[in-house]
Amino acid sequence: MSSTTPRRVGLIGWGAIGRVVGGALAAGEIPGAELVCVVDNRPLGDSVPAPQRTLEQALESCDLIVEAAGQGVVREWGTTILAHGTDLLVASTGALTDETLAKELLDTGPGRVYFTGGAVGGLDLLQAVRAMGPLDDVRLTTTKLPSTLEQPWMDEELLGRMRSATAPVEVMAGTARDVPVKFPKSTNVAASVALAVGDSDAVRVSVVADPAARHTSHVVEASGAHGSYRFEVRHLPDTANPATSQVVPYAVLRSLAALAGRTGQIL
Fold first, then answer.
1. pLDDT at 108 over 50
2. Is 0.90 topped by the overall pTM?
3. 220 - beta bridge partners?
4. Which residues are catalytic?
5. Residue-wise over 92-110: b if at least 16 C-beta within 10 A, else e?
6. Which of 98, 157, 210, 230 lies 20 to 30 Å (CA to CA) from residue 263?
7. What Cα–Cα distance (Å) separates residue 71 from each residue in 68, 95, 185, 215?
8. In degrees rounded to 5, what are phi and psi of residue 47?
9. Annotated binding residues for NAD(+), as ranges?
10. Catalytic positions (predicted)?
11. How does DSSP classify residue 237?
12. Spatial separation of the C-alpha atoms in residues 246 and 152, rounded to whole Å
């Protein structure tokens, strides 16, 4: 593909992330990328700025698919998209805690798979450090409002503690392999950190419910023979979907801009 040929983008999902990404693409805010169609399992009518298509139809007209619909889409369609020769930009990185799926995505072609950093920064630096040798200690603490962390598997005792909390409550502690499975809409950051350091089991994750958490926060701490690193981000939750941060669709757009060849991007 020449640098003057725009990326033909199909967008999967018209939710809190998809609406921002699709609106920006349709408005021409990402030079070198055009929105060709939207894929969603609900009838969207005139609410979308591009034709609604099935995924099979999207593959016939797009060279890049953007996933903004959840981990299930990555599991069900990821390798199909790549095997068709279409590139895939994944927002729901939590799906990658399944090592078999992750390997299939990385090994399948001729399409190429890309991942957005989403709500956390510093992943590029962690990847660079990883090239010098493994990190000895990597920790992530994610803090959100209790209501955004409630899950069907939780028992009444834990739900009661979360709902009546007047101070922060640790909801779960585990690895970046375990935690995203339990919180599929709230902990993509854990999987993104694991992707950056190359080992899901090496990343210790603490999920905290805080009734006073006006912002969603992620604190990444890592250390090794070559140095120590700490990144802390605090985001306002998305008003339409408090389980995600307002910044996430803009992280997707930044990744899209890089894939479309915009100059000046930090890679």
1. yes
2. no
3. 140, 231
4. 218
5. bbbbbbbeebbebbeebee
6. 230
7. 9, 5, 8, 24
8. -80, -10
9. 119, 188
10. 218
11. B
12. 25
